[in-house]
Amino acid sequence: MSSAPGNDDDTIDIRPANAGGVRRRRLLRLALAGGGAVSLGAAGLGADRLLRKDQGPAIGSATESAIDLEEPCGTHLSRLAPDADVVVIDFPSLLTQGLTLDRLAAFVEKANVPHDRLLNDASLAAAIKASGDTEASYYYGHDYQAADIARFFRLADSEGIALNPHELWLRRLMRQLGWMAQGATGAIITLTAAGGPVTMEMRTVILRHEISHGAFYTVPAYRRYTEDFWASLTDADRAAFTGFLGRQGYDTSLTELMLNESQAYLIFTRDPRFFNAAAIGKSEEEVAQLRQGFIDNMPEFWLRALATEPRPPASHTMPGCPVQSAMLTDGRRTCLCYRPV
Ligand SMILES: [Zn+2]
Question: Of 18, 181, 333, 341, whose CB neighbour count within 10 A is largest?
């Protein structure tokens, strides 16, 4: 999901403990936020949700509203409750997300970069700078299907591209999910903890947008429906969406990307900061008509309800990390999470 104004600050918004004063009895986990490698065992996670090397992935499922309420201090993994083929990665910061996924974003869908080879670090940094973004702000949320991620890592091997520790973590995850295999069905969707330009409420907008991409990748009937919808639009309407997406940094030559993003913005991004009628040069009435036409004919499956349901409330407390404090150690920010007993 394309970003609003950029931010390259890796600081997580740390809030004081609840007014009631939760006692810090049990230290759950120490996670490094920022500088170090991505922490798999996110602070505040139950053991069943950790990625265990010897047993493969054991990732618990979570509903949209449960994820909205997370305030990850480390990297959280969960399978989306209505569709286990969609794995949600909730990063502790925009920077950690960017370090993990920016090279993949360029490869799969960014404008003005090649899609048949990978960028090395210097080329990636130049591409991000040329787009007017930073490592942190290249996207606010990401989404990729298993086949594209597998192709990315195969090319990294064959081209000898040096991947960073965050990308190597993602490759381990893909292997353990079995998604490096030909024909694997699956998708990752991502968002970040609130901090910098990302508010708790904005997390709910980003997640709803990304969930629709997850469905697009894993539910063939929905992908076909979206393709048919795109084909049914007038040339002028397709040009309007394409123009908007081009201004967001997407490669407009990729038709599948255009129609996938169009469904996500038009139907599942009900926040004028990210999408509005004027962005595609239409009136509110015209956009409402387009939406209604799409929703009326959607296939009957779990995503359909989310086309009209209000988003779940944003977190005002921090149930994913009930008590946390931060300190600086050797110039690195260390995040501590506690669970009240
Ligand atoms: Zn999107």
Answer: 333
